[in-house]
Design a protein that fits this description.
Blueprint lengths: L2 H38 L2 H32 L3 H34 L6 H27 L2 H9 L1 H21 L4 H33 L15
Length: about 230
């Protein structure tokens, strides 16, 4: 393979990584804004999150198309093949993350019409910050190629589960104490579940990054897990 072709191929791979990183930044912003919409009862912001979701769908489809084209034309092997397939898988997880952020924003539109429940929204905010930070860390590990950062995100998956379990119990307490809160609390419960699932996608991305960089799979059985409700 000539030096020109090798250079061109490397440029394609670098461009692919950059596109995934850009998609990651948008997904991260979507999650942060959806949480802010819940906490601040910000209807325009929630509507903006819902409207922007289509951009992630388009980006995911474009990255998948570029990956398939690259595999078909370049026939990458070993590291290059892992890098290409990893980009496609991460884009898929980011698209799903965007869908979950959109779901949170939709729930916030309903919660905004109910009476404020400040202690609960503060709990949502704390869990949201944790999930957003995990997403940021794993995306940084992808762009920087730092395996340790990806493993750190993967190994702390139980932290999100623990926050969810605590919030679940808090929501149940509210609903049992005042039946009038059942409807808004149910929507906040869905918000919490969506955040927990975003945390799972961050964990998935950490596993993909580790495989991309090492060629080895992380074993889920070796990660500590909290008890599910």
């Amino acid at each position: 393979m000539s030096e020109h072709i090798v250079k061109s191929y490397e440029e394609e791979l670098n461009h692919l990584t950059a596109e995934v990183a850009r998609m990651g930044g948008i997904a991260e912003a979507q999650v942060a804004d959806s949480i802010a919409a819940v906490v601040r009862r910000d209807v325009p912001l929630a509507e903006a999150v819902v409207a922007r979701d289509e951009k992630l769908d388009v980006m995911e489809a474009d990255i998948e198309k570029k990956c398939i084209r690259l595999i078909a034309l370049r026939q990458p092997m070993a590291n290059d093949l892992r890098r290409t397939v990893s980009a496609m898988k991460i884009a898929n997880n980011l698209e799903r993350t965007g869908d979950l952020a959109k779901n949170i924003a939709k729930r916030s539109l309903i919660v905004a019409d109910a009476e404020p429940m400040t202690p609960l929204t503060r709990s949502i905010e704390r869990m949201g910050k944790l999930v957003t930070q995990r997403l940021k860390e794993v995306l940084d590990s992808y762009t920087s190629g730092q395996i340790d950062r990806a493993v750190a995100v993967w190994s702390r998956d139980n932290e999100v589960d623990e926050h969810y379990n605590s919030l679940f119990r808090e929501l149940l307490t509210y609903m049992m104490g005042d039946p009038r809160t059942i409807s808004p609390c149910a929507h906040l419960l869905f918000v919490a579940k969506n955040l927990e699932r975003i945390g799972d996608h961050a964990t998935n991305i950490a596993e993909i990054v580790h495989y991309d960089l090492t060629g080895q799979m992380l074993v889920a059985a070796e990660r500590p897990k909290s008890e599910a409700l």
